[in-house]
Amino acid sequence: MHAYGAAHEVRNEDLYAGLVRNGAVDAGEIDTTSPVGRAAQRHSLGKRKVRWIQQTLRQLGVIERVPGRRGVWRAVAKKELEKAPRNLVRVAFSTDLGLALWSDCSAFRRIDEPIHLILSSPPYPLSKARAYGGPSVKEYTEFICRSIEPLLRNLVPGGSLCLNLSNDIFLAGSPARSTYLERLTIALEDLGLSLMDRLAWENPSKPPGPTYWACKERVQLVHTWEPVLWMTNDPTRCLADNRRVLRPHSVATSKLIARGGEARSTSYGDGAHRLRPGSFGSETAGTIPRNILRIPHEASSIAPVRRAALDSGLPAHGALMPRDLARFLIEFLTPVDGMVADLFSGWFTTATQAEETGRRWICTEQMAQYVALGAWRLQDAPGFHSSFDLTRA
Ligand SMILES: C[S@@+](CC[C@H](N)C(=O)[O-])C[C@H]1O[C@@H](n2cnc3c(N)ncnc32)[C@H](O)[C@@H]1O
Q1: Could you identify the atom of ligand 1 that is nearest to the CA of residue 367?
Q2: Quick check: 79 pLDDT over 70?
Q3: Closest C-alpha residue for ligand 1 atom 13
Q4: Would you say 351 and 363 are in contact if contact means Cβ atoms under 8 Å apart?
Q5: Which value, in Å, is the radius of gyration of the alpha carbons in the chain?
Q6: Where do the domains of the chain lie, and which CATH numbers do they carry?
């Protein structure tokens, strides 16, 4: 390990020579070969001993082979996350449209830029926090309100706040869910926001759970959705526009329109809904999406980032938002020249989608390694520039 600490990548031949030089192994042991095994092939017993230790270190996860280079090994990069020092705000990278800050989200206190959409997936109040930590249920409302408040100052009239939260926070030792979401919603109302909707993000790729209550005790169903709390500071001037997110008509609807609409005259729901000849017959630009959004985590967009993380020894992120969810919310809630802000950016999914849809963006993320991967994702964006040594992470 001393050898791997001193140099980044070490060839085995240099390793043997170094070990002989500092007396850890006998030169004779390295240089002479002896018959080994049934085939009695000749090997250096000294080198085999070193390689045995190498394998042990590999299994412990402290060294690894350098991909594509035979007989070359290196120390595994430090996996602990590096938090931005208190009160430090560093521009990690920027593009023509956006600004990524390596800092605590309180950096937004120093920013005076009108914001059209605050879109974020904050750390959930999990009983076993993720690698990047997070507040407990008890601290949650205070934590979110304190973090969001500086951005609300800059939210333009009719701007929106969207928070992807968890519905699966349970009371200790109980199959009952916490009502922290309700408490948080009311606290955000007290900050001047109005509830537009609790969109349901149905995630077919969500791992089955809650394991104990659904699979062992059988008193719960398997969860599959997460709420997206959508609020605005001025519902009468809300900037949402569903014409920006229309879906193609289904085959049945297209056929109905082509036929000139309904032929029947009827009513249902005790007269609440009426059908007349011609109903639903007008040509429209598309179908208005329903408020249950079925969006899987598409492996194809995340696999290259995970590979980049692996190749550069950076830790994987355990809680990403799917690209299509971020894109949908940005297009629905932000005018094309609008500004999107994410205070808990992770691997910068919000920024990638703001960038791709032509919106401006400002994002903060506290962990250097996640910022580095965000930069990797956005490196081809027009005007990409970074003065942050992203490899240091
Ligand atoms: C659920 S993840 C966000 C993932 C992101 N939506 C994505 O898809 O790439 C939450 C992130 O918030 C970051 N975070 C937590 N507290 C923070 C704070 N006070 N300031 C800035 N970032 C913070 C964590 O490091 C973590 O990466």
Answers
A1: 25
A2: no
A3: 344
A4: yes
A5: 28
A6: 2-75 (no CATH), 90-242+296-392 (3.40.50.150), 248-287 (no CATH)
Is 121 close to ligand 1, i.e. is its CB under 6 Å away?
yes
* Residue 71, amino acid: G
Positive/negative CA dihedral, 372, 303, 59, 18: negative
**Does 123 sit in the ligand 1 pocket, CB within 6 Å?**
yes
Which of 77-91, 125-139, 188-202 has maximum average pLDDT? 188-202
Position 77 pLDDT exceeds 80: no
Which of 102, 144, 366 is the best mutation target for the ligand 1 pocket, counting ligand atoms within 8 Å of the beta carbon and taking the most? 366
Cα(299)–Cα(304) distance, integer angstroms: 9
Nearest to 336 by CA among 108, 93, 155, 117: 117
Q: Which tokens sit at 75?
A: 């120390």
Tokens 């009108």 appear where?
A: 114
pLDDT score of 64 more than 70: yes
Question: Is residue 90 within 8 Å of 107, Cβ to Cβ?
Answer: no
Greatest alpha-carbon pair distance for the chain in Å reads 99
Q: Which residue has the higher pLDDT, 264 or 179?
A: 179
Label residue 268 by pLDDT band (50, 70, 90).
Answer: confident
Question: Considering only CA atoms, which of 372, 369, 374, 336 is closest in space to residue 354?
Answer: 336
Full-prediction pTM beyond 0.85? no
